[in-house]
Every structure is written in C-alpha cells, then in structure tokens.
Amino acid sequence: MDREAAGDAVVAAGWQAVRDDGRVRAELLEAAYGEPRLRQLFPWTGMGELHFSRCTEHRWTWDIPYIQAAAGGTYWVSGPLRTQAVGPAATAQEAIAMVVQRLPAGCGPAFPGTPEELAVHEATTQKQQVNPAPSQIQKRRTTG
Q1: Side-chain half-sphere of 106: how many Cα atoms within 13 Å?
Q2: Of these four, 2, 73, 86, 88, which has the most CB atoms within 10 Å of its CB?
Q3: How would you class 52 by CB atoms within 10 Å of its CB: exposed for 0-12, middle for 13-18, buried for 19 or more?
C-alpha cells in the first residue's frame, strides 16, 4: 500500500472512530463528513469538540477551527487556537461552513504522519517548486 492510500485508510478509520465514540452530535458528524474538504482531513474529538487535522498521527495539527456543541442544539466554532473564537452557529451546516471558510491555503488530504513530518514534506515540496530539478527545467523548455 502506498503512502497516500495508507493515509486514506487512516482517515477513514478516524471518521469511524469519532462516530463510534459518541462524544459529538451525529448531525454534526454527518454534516462534516458530507463536506469533501473536511472528509479528507483526519477527525478527532476532545472535550466534546470536533477537530480536523492535516496529518494523521498524534500531536495533530492545530491550524483549523473546531466545533463544539452549544445549548439548544446550536454550535460554537472556535480556533484554530483555544484563545480564538469564530462565533455561534445555529445549525451543524452553518458551523461546517464557518470552518471551511477558514481552512488554511492549500489544505488537502491529510498527510500520513506527524505534524513534524508534514512540515518537512511541505518545506520540501515548496523548495522543489521554487528550485525545480534540472530535468523539470528541461521539460518546461521543450513543452512550452
């Protein structure tokens, strides 16, 4: 199994785990899973909150807002840091939309690994885009 497929399997297992643990309202999980940009991230729960990580291994990323249940069937969106508040949401769908609006640039499928490994991967990828390999430069010259 390649690294991407392994990451997909871990993300799928994460979604099943948050469904099974019962700490988050089912309607919120359904709304989050129904949003493709969130479904590709690794979900985790803590203190009754639904969090999303850009990597699959613990010490997950803390750069995406998270959602907690509030009174009367409503929600509160915070983050990404604990000291940051986004605001109230009347419905699960509204809370999901608030999170999606605040996803980091280039947020894609969860990286199979730790936040530290993700940072190295992103730095390497960025460096390759800034300084392409000689074979990529030659390819660009011949194709356009």
Answers
A1: 5
A2: 86
A3: buried
Sign of CA dihedral 9, 10, 15, 18: positive
β partners of residue 50: 45, 67
The b-or-e profile of 6-15 (16+ CB within 10 A means b, else e) is ebbebbeebb
Residue-by-residue DSSP string for 31-84: HHHHSHHHHTSEEEEETTEEEEESBSSSS----S-EEEE-GGG-EEEE-SSTT-
Q: What is the pLDDT of residues 66-113, one digit of tens each?
A: 999 999 999 999 999 899 999 999 999 999 999 999 999 889 899 998
Q: Is residue 144 over pLDDT 60?
A: no
CA atoms of 45 and 120, how far apart (whole Å): 26
